[in-house]
Automatic annotation (TrEMBL):
GO terms for cellular component: plasma membrane. The chain crosses the membrane at residues 37-62, 422-442. It is a multi-pass membrane protein. Residues 29-114 form the Polysaccharide chain length determinant N-terminal domain. Its EC number is 2.7.10.2. Pfam families: AAA_31, Wzz. This is non-specific protein-tyrosine kinase. It comes from Rhizorhabdus histidinilytica. Residues 525-663 form the AAA domain.
Length: 710
C-alpha cells in the first residue's frame, strides 16, 4: 500500500485502552455500554414489562406445610408384645415413610376426607373417579424429609389459601390415622384368627383330658395331691406302721419296766405310770394329810384315842385306794401292749395288700404318663393362645401410630407464587443480563465502521475525524435547515466546527490543494460533506472551488440548486471555457463547477489527460479544490479522479458502512495509485457516548457549550 500512511496501531490496545493482563480495559467496556445505552434500556424495559405482565397474569398459588415426626420409640401402656412391631430406628425407614405418604391409597383417603369436609376436590363417586382425583391431589403435594431428622414436611399448593392448608393438614392426619388403622386392623385380624384357633385347641385339650381321666378310671390310677390312691395308701400305711411300732415299743417298755419293779418286791408305787397319774397323786396327797393328822393325834392323845383309830382307818383306806389305782394302771399298760401289737399286725397286713395294688398300678403308669404328656402339651398350647388372645384383645384399643403431627400447616396470607419479591429480583437480574447480552450481541454483529480504532487498526488508514449528524448537535431542537445552509447561518456551531476540523486535517496532514472526496457506497454523506467542506473553506476566506465529478447523479449541483448552461462535461470536452462554467455561491463566495444535467451518453470525459488539464487550471486560480466524485465501488470514474488529485478523503457512514466495503474501496484506491489522506466518519450521533471510540472528542462536547452557538 504505497499511498497508505503506515503507523503503529498497538494491537494490544483496544480502541486506545491498554489490556491489563487478560482483562479488557474497563473504559472500553464502559464505552461499549454507553454507546448502546438506549438498546440496553429498551431491552431491559421489555424484559421488566414481560416479567411484570407474566406476574400479573399468573394465577396466585398458595402453599402450606404440615410436619409429621416419625417416632420409633413408643410408650408401652401395658407390657405386651404387639402384633405389628414398631418401626426400627434405621434412617432408611423415614425415606420409606415419605414414599408411603405419596401413595395413591393415602391420597384416596385424603380425597374422601376433604370431600367430607366440604372442599371441592373433584368427583369421587366411582373408584375410577376417586383414583383420578387422588392423582390430581398428589400433583399438588410435595413430601420431603427435613435433612437427616425424623421430621417429614408435607407441602401442599393450591390457588386457594384455605385449600392449601386443608390438603397439607389432611395428608398429615390421614397418614397418622392410616398407621393406626393398619395396626388396629392387623391386631383385629390376628385376634379373629387366634379365637378360631383357640376353639380348635380348646376342643383338643378337652379331648386329651377326657382320655387321660378315662384311662385313670379304667386302670385305678385315681390320685389326689399328685399321687395315685395306691401310692397314697402305701405311703400312709408306712407312716402308720412306723408310728404303730414306735407306740408298741413305748408301751412295751413301760409295761416291762412296771413288771420289773413288781418282780423286785415293790407294790408298784414307784411305777412311772403310777407316778404320773393324777388320781394317784391326789390320793397320795390325802395320804400325806391323813398321816400328818394321825401323827398329831398320836402325839397329843396316844394310840388308844378313838380319833387315832379313826385316823388310822382312814389312812389305811387311802392306801388301799392307791394300791388299787396302781394295779389298774399296770393292767392298763398290759392291755395297751396287746392293743398296739394287734394294731401293728393289722397295719402290716394292709401294707402287703397295698403293695400289690401299687405294683399293678405301676404297669399301667406308662400309658398314663404318655396320655398325661399329651394332655399337658395341649393344655399349654391352648393356654398360650388364650393369653395371646387376651393380650391382642387388650391391644386393639391401645394401638399407637409410629408418627405424630408436629406442626399443622397454617393458612397462608400471601401467595407463594407468583413471588413478588422474587419476580422483582428476577426481573431486575433478567433485565440487566438481557440488556448486557443485547449490548454484547449488538456490538458483536456490528459490522459497520464506527470508531477511530476501526479505521486505524482494521483499515490501516489515517483517521480524519467525524462529521456529526446535524440533528444530534441541536440538543433536541428540530432541524429547520439543511446542513449546507446551517453552516452559513450558524458558523460557530459544533457542526460547522467539525467541518473546520476536517479542513484542518486535510491542510495539515496532506497539504493537498486538490482533494477528492469519495465513498464506498451511495448515501453515505459524501456529497453533503463535499459541499459543506467547500463552503466552510470559502467562509474562512480561502479561494475554493467545488467540482461536481459525479456525472451520473449531479449530487453537488442538485444540493446547491444550480443548473448552469455549460458545465464540467463541456469544459473537459473543450466545448466551453472554464470561466463560462463556473458558478459563484453568493452566500459564501464559493465557486462551483457543476453539471447542467446527467451524463447524456457513454462518452467518458474523465480521462487522465482531461483531468490533469482541468486540475492544473483550477490550481492556478484557486487555493483549494474540492472534487465530489461518484462512489468508488460502483463507478469507475471515481478511480480516475482519485489518481489525478493530490489526496483522496474517503467518507463512510457511521455504523452503516461495513468494514468489508471500506476495505474494498481502499484497495481500489491503492490499485489506482491514489494518495489516501484518511477516512472520515459522517452522520455520527454525538448524543451517544463515545460514538467514535474512547478518544472520541465528542465525549467532551458538553464541556464546550460556551464555544458553540447552535
Amino acid at each position: 500500500m504505497d499511498h497508505v500512511q503506515e503507523f503503529p496501531t498497538a494491537d494490544a490496545r483496544p480502541e486506545g485502552g491498554r489490556l491489563k493482563g487478560l482483562l479488557p480495559d474497563p473504559g472500553y467496556l464502559w464505552m461499549i455500554f454507553r454507546r448502546h445505552l438506549w438498546l440496553f434500556l429498551g431491552v431491559a424495559f421489555l424484559i421488566l414489562a414481560a416479567v411484570a405482565l407474566r406476574t400479573v397474569m399468573m394465577v396466585p398459588i398458595y402453599t402450606s406445610t404440615a410436619s409429621v415426626v416419625i417416632e420409633p420409640r413408643t410408650n408401652d401402656v401395658i407390657e405386651v408384645q404387639s402384633v405389628v412391631p414398631n418401626l426400627p430406628k434405621d434412617s432408611d425407614v423415614v425415606d420409606t415413610e415419605v414414599r408411603m405418604i405419596t401413595s395413591p391409597t393415602l391420597a384416596m383417603r385424603v380425597a374422601t376426607d376433604l370431600s367430607r369436609q366440604g372442599y371441592d376436590v373433584g368427583p369421587i363417586r366411582t373408584e375410577a373417579e376417586l383414583a383420578h382425583t387422588a392423582a390430581l391431589l398428589l400433583r399438588k403435594v410435595a413430601v420431603a424429609r427435613s435433612g437427616l431428622t425424623y421430621v417429614i414436611d408435607i407441602t401442599a399448593s393450591s390457588d386457594r389459601s384455605d385449600m392449601a392448608a386443608a390438603i397439607a393438614n389432611t395428608f398429615a392426619r390421614q397418614y397418622v390415622a392410616a398407621q393406626t388403622d393398619a395396626k388396629v386392623g392387623a391386631t383385629r385380624s390376628a385376634n379373629v384368627w387366634l379365637n378360631r384357633r383357640m376353639t380348635e385347641l380348646r376342643a383338643a385339650a378337652g379331648a386329651a383330658d377326657a382320655a387321660l381321666q378315662n384311662y385313670k378310671i379304667r386302670n385305678g390310677l385315681m390320685s389326689a395331691q399328685g399321687a395315685t390312691m395306691a401310692e397314697q395308701e402305701v405311703s400312709s400305711l408306712n407312716q402308720q406302721i412306723s408310728l404303730a411300732r414306735a407306740d408298741l415299743a413305748e408301751k412295751q417298755g413301760r409295761f416291762n419296766a412296771a413288771r420289773a419293779q413288781l418282780q423286785r418286791g415293790g407294790k408298784g408305787a414307784d411305777v412311772g405310770a403310777a407316778l404320773g397319774s393324777g388320781t394317784v397323786a391326789s390320793l397320795r396327797a390325802r395320804e400325806a394329810e391323813a398321816s400328818q393328822q394321825l401323827a398329831q393325834l398320836e402325839t397329843r392323845y396316844g394310840e388308844l384315842y378313838p380319833e387315832v383309830k379313826t385316823a388310822k382307818s382312814q389312812l389305811a383306806d387311802i392306801r388301799a385306794q392307791i394300791q388299787q389305782e396302781i394295779d389298774r394302771i399296770l393292767s392298763s399298760l398290759e392291755a395297751d401292749v396287746r392293743v398296739a401289737s394287734s394294731r401293728l399286725a393289722s397295719l402290716q397286713g394292709s401294707q402287703s395288700q397295698a403293695k400289690g395294688s401299687l405294683a399293678s398300678n405301676s404297669a399301667a403308669q406308662v400309658g398314663y404318663l404318655e396320655l398325661e404328656r399329651r394332655a399337658e402339651a395341649s393344655k399349654q398350647i391352648y393356654e398360650a393362645f388364650l393369653n395371646r388372645s387376651k393380650e391382642t384383645a387388650a391391644q386393639e384399643g391401645l394401638q399407637q401410630p409410629d408418627a405424630r403431627i408436629s406442626a399443622l400447616g397454617a393458612v397462608p396470607l400471601l401467595p407463594d407464587s407468583p413471588n413478588i419479591k422474587l419476580a422483582i429480583l428476577f426481573g431486575i437480574v433478567g433485565a440487566l443480563l438481557g440488556g448486557l447480552v443485547a449490548v454484547a450481541l449488538a456490538e458483536y454483529f456490528q459490522r459497520g465502521v464506527q470508531t477511530k480504532a476501526d479505521v486505524e487498526r482494521r483499515l490501516r488508514v489515517r483517521y480524519a475525524g467525524a462529521v456529526p449528524s446535524l440533528g444530534s448537535t441541536l440538543g433536541g431542537l428540530r432541524e429547520t435547515e439543511t446542513p449546507q445552509d446551517y453552516i452559513i447561518s450558524h458558523p460557530f456551531s459544533s457542526f460547522a466546527e467539525s467541518l473546520r476540523s476536517l479542513r484542518a486535517f486535510v491542510a495539515l496532514r496532506s497539504r493537498a490543494r486538490t482533494l477528492a472526496i469519495t465513498s464506498p457506497l451511495p448515501q453515505e454523506g459524501k456529497t453533503t460533506t463535499s459541499v459543506c467542506l467547500a463552503r466552510t473553506a470559502a467562509l474562512a476566506g480561502t479561494s475554493t472551488v467545488l467540482v461536481d465529478c459525479d456525472l451520473r447523479r449531479r449530487g453537488s449541483s442538485e444540493m446547491l440548486g444550480i443548473r448552469p448552461r455549460v458545465g464540467l462535461i463541456e469544459v473537459l470536452s473543450g466545448e466551453a471555457r472554464l470561466d463560462d462554467a463556473l458558478v459563484i455561491d453568493e452566500a459564501t463566495g464559493l465557486h462551483i463547477l457543476g453539471t447542467p444535467e446527467a451524463q447524456p451518453s457513454a462518452y467518458d470525459p474523465l480521462t487522465p489527460a482531461n483531468l490533469d488539464k482541468l486540475l492544473r487550471q483550477l490550481r492556478e486560480r484557486f487555493e483549494f479544490v474540492v472534487v465530489d466524485t461518484a462512489p468508488i465501488l460502483g463507478v469507475a470514474d471515481a478511480r480516475a479522479v482519485a489518481s489525478s488529485v493530490d489526496s483522496v478523503l474517503v467518507i463512510t457512514r457511521w455504523r452503516k458502512t461495513s468494514i468489508n466495503a471500506a476495505e474494498a474501496a481502499i484497495e481500489l484506491l491503492v490499485d489506482a495509485n491514489a494518495n489516501i489522506a484518511g477516512l472520515a466518519l459522517t452522520q455520527v450521533d454525538i448524543r451517544r457516548y463515545a460514538s467514535t471510540g474512547q478518544s472520541d472528542v465528542y465525549g467532551y462536547h458538553k464541556k464546550f457549550k460556551g464555544y458553540y452557538q447552535n
